[in-house]
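Q: Start with the shorter request: fold the first protein.
A: Done. Sequence, then structure:
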Amino acid sequence: QLQLVESGGGLVQSGGSLRLSCAASELTLDYYAIHWFRQAPGKGREGVSCVVSSGSSTNFADSVKARSTISRDNAKTTVYLQMNSLKREDTGVYYCAADWTPNEPGCRVLPYEAPYNYWGQGTQVTVSS
C-alpha cells in the first residue's frame, strides 16, 4: 500500500517562496504520476501541478504556471513543488496524489478532485499580506 506524506508547508509572507515535498513512505514512486492539489477554505480541491512517472513532462494550473516548478529526485521517492511569488490566494491545504501511469507521456491538471488511488494527508500553506 503506497503511502504519501507531504511536508514543507507553513506561514509565509506574500511574495515569499515555499518548497513542498511529497514522499513515499516505503515504496518507490517510479510508476506513478504525481499530482499536487490544493483546497482553499470553503472551496473544493483543485489541481495545481503534475509530473509524469519518468519526470520528462510536467503541467501546471494557469494560476501558478509562471512561478512554480515541479521535480522528482533521482530515486523517485520524493516529488517537490517549488512555489515562488506566493499570493494570498495560494493559501490552502496542499495534497499530493499518486496515479499509476508508468508510460504516459503527459499529465493533466484538473480543476477538481480526481479519483486517484493514493493521497497524502496534506500540508497547510498560509500566505499573509
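Q: Next, the second protein, separately.
A: Sequence, then structure:
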Amino acid sequence: QVQLVESGGGSVQAGGSLKLSCAASGYTYTNYCMGWFRQAPGKEREGVATIGSAGATTYADSVKGRFTISKDNAKNTLYLQMNSLKPEDTAMYFCAAERARYCSGAYWLIGTNFGYWGQGTQVTVSS
C-alpha cells in the first residue's frame, strides 16, 4: 500500500520561500514518476512539477525558474523548493506517484495519470 504524506506548507508573504516535503512509503517500484500538483478554491487541479526515477524533471510554465523539484532516494522523500512566491501560488499542494518507465513532458503534468495521492498541504501567499 503506497502512502504519501506531505508537509511543509504554511503562510508566507509574497517574495518568500517554502519547501514542501512528501514522505513515501510502501513504494517498491524501480521506475516511477512523482509529482506535485496544486488546486486553488474554485479552480481545476494544476500540475506543478514532476520527476522521474532517473531524475528527469518537468515544470509548469507558471513556476519555471522559481520552483525546484527534487528527491532523496535514501529517505524516500520528494521535495518542492518554492522561491519568489506569488499570491497566485496560493493553493492546496498535493504529492502524487505512479509507476512509469518514463516521466517527462506535459503528459505527466496531468493529474489523472497518477494513481497515488497524498492528503495535501496548504500554501498561502499574502501580498
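Q: Describe the second briefly.
A: Residues 112 and 127 are 32 Å apart (CA to CA). The chain is about 0% helix and 50% strand.
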